[in-house]
Amino acid sequence: MRVIRRTPPDYRTMPWKNGGGITHEMFIYPEDATLQEGDFLWRLSSANVGESGPFSTFPGYDRVLFFLSGNALDLTVNGETVSLRSPFDSLRFRGEHTASCMLPDGPVTDFNIFCKRDILTCEYRHLFSKKDIERLFLPGDTTILLCLHGEATAEIEGKHPLKEMEMLVVTDHSWGQPLTLQYGEKTRLLFITLTKR
Q: What domains does the chain contain, in order, with CATH numbers?
């Protein structure tokens, strides 16, 4: 099991695969994989989207896009349009599908999960503060805990503080591995589980 904490200074800034924008690569696995080679099993990224236009295609990958900030993001995937308006609204779609965005009211920021469809499944849920301390038991093979808003402290092989857009990645853990989470009333976290097929 590996426990890795990542913060924004660790993220790599690079052009979109299709050259149409800029993305911040937050994590890629295996860590020696690259976007250009397309040899990764999973990848996390955040993009500042400043203009309408097409998205890059990722054949063979499932993708989940989360709307983080801004006023509105209209996504068209295979001819069907979905409007994301509220923070943390999301849409799951296949990476090979034709996708584009319209920005009816200025720039937005998003967060993306990519995972290799024939090797991994991806599930996620939002965590809100219900009590000061919560004990979780990790399913799957890899868990990512991303702080979307507020602050939290995760305890697993030590204590790991998390602020906005900081994350904890726990790879190759056993099923049911315990993790203790402490977070405040206004904190919002994204709990991502990746499981080998």
A: 9-116 (2.60.120.10), 120-196 (2.60.120.10)
